Amino acid sequence: MINDLWYKNAVFYCLNVGTFLDTNGDGTGDFQGLMRRLDYLHGIGVDAVWLMPFQTSPQRDDGYDVADYYNVDPRYGTLGDFVEFTHAAHSRGMRVIIDLVVNHTSDQHPWFKDARSSPDSPYRDWYVWSKTKPANADQGMVFPGVQDTTWTYDEQAKEYYFHRFYDFQPDLNTANPKVQAEILKIMGFWIQLGVSGFRMDAVPFVIATKGADVTKPVEQFDMLRMFREFLQWRKGDSIILAEANVLPDTDMDYFGSDGDRMQMMFNFQVNQHLFYALAASDGRPLAKALRQTKSRPETAQWAIFLRNHDELDLGRLTDEQREKVFEEFGPEKGMQLYDRGIRRRLAPMLDGDRRRMELAYSLMFTLPGTPVLRYGDEIAMGDDLSLPERNCARTPMQWSNEPQGGFTLGSKPVLPVISGGPYGYETINVAHQRREPESFLNWMERIIRMRKEVPEIGVGDFTVLNMRDPSIFAIRYDWRNNSALFIHNLSGSPKEIVFEAGVEGEEGNVLVDVLDSGHSKADDKGKHRVVIEGYGYRWYRVGGLNYLLKRTDI
Ligand code: GLC
Ligand code: CA
């Protein structure tokens, strides 16, 4: 049964069609281009492609301002291209999930245009209005420093409308049954066109009570169950991956204690503490975050990631911890964003240090959940801090050392291709790394392959081992008769560590290194003694060399 839950052990890869590959020279990536790169994605070992918004949009928030939920933005192609793409993905055994942005629409959406035109509009009630400026209009902004209110006066409507995000993103009145029915219709539409589910944007806000009189929004969790039921009736194996940066004690409200709400959530708690672990060489807060987010229904799963298309939000760390991460990974003001995060890509944050990048990814692939990669990270792409807000980490994919990094034959890419310096396309590109046996790309391909050989990470029980040295982070998974153990040295200096595998009987006495030949045999007291280099990592199967023979299938 667990085997049927494809998302528990899949490798996800997130990309934006517009910055992936342009085939007609207009400077914007398109579905035709994405299709040409499906073999590349398949070759790395990607199981599911997560497409960021590609529906018709004025593109004022990278497509998170949708103006037509039932169409492909013409600059990316047509609905026909989309269906060709999902078909081509399926024929390679890959699935597609897409962003579902239904907390708000673009202010250019026909619903909003109609709603603002008259109080009698059938769409008036699809949005959230107030005749007077609500007292809390200067609270709850998602983009502090860039956005200064959550209620804006609309000249045409002669009322204020609510917007949790930018003012061109009016919030939908998601409590309205008609809006809810429309959300289901949107899901049904894309499911029919071949997607396996949705990355649902801003879930806590979608389900929150909204209105001028709401002082403390309350989540309407039943809505999640409604979405889930609808999906499962239409297509049983489709999922929702929720973007919900919430406190651990509400996790189960999102998953549903009977596993009847969201199948997946991004683990923001672990994400932030993982960066703290890397910055401070201290794994203890990460271990705590893992324990806090441990409980989840059997069918539910965490998504584990490093960087995404937004800033690295550090809002859940203590002030001191946050300062430490800023100091190590984003010391300059221009590297930070919204008073809470870092907007850089991973490689520059880690100074392009290969050892630290491998360490970070080794952690990502061995923490409990399903790994989610971001396009370009597999070749260690950099950022362009001269671009505003989050755009710095959304530059076009670097395919080769041809002009514009091989992204477009045109001269006006949608965002500038990074050129020159250590992260320019001349140095960092797929074509080059494909040929180099020791490249980061080839390392990535191999680590993904190894991750797939340890499905226990996705389905097993985990235990963080007690290590005396806080810079050593060790985690073991047990599933039926199988155990796997992963050790990371978060510090830059070599360490000799002495530990017990913690598995009953003889089994724990032999650790088989699955990445290298450094197997370990315990002494007669059952203790292993391993020397691990600075920023080093070890992936072990617990048990004899013939573990594969006795492995119980999952
Ligand atoms: C989510 C997206 C972000 C977007 C926002 C508004 O947080 O990740 O990119 O700006 O929602 O839709
Ligand atoms: Ca194009």
TrEMBL record:
Name of the protein this chain belongs to: Maltose alpha-D-glucosyltransferase/ alpha-amylase
Molecular-function GO terms, alphabetical: transferase activity
SUPFAM superfamilies: (Trans)glycosidases, Glycosyl hydrolase domain
Matching PANTHER family: ALPHA-AMYLASE FAMILY MEMBER, MALTOSE ALPHA-D-GLUCOSYLTRANSFERASE
Pfam family, one: Alpha-amylase
InterPro entries the record matches: GH, GH13_cat_dom, Glyco_hydro_b, O16G_dom_2, SupH-like_C
Record-annotated Glycosyl hydrolase family 13 catalytic domain positions: 14-408
This protein's record includes keyword Transferase: yes
One annotated GO biological process: carbohydrate metabolic process
Key words of the record: Transferase
Mitochondrion found in the keyword field: no
Signal peptide bounds: none
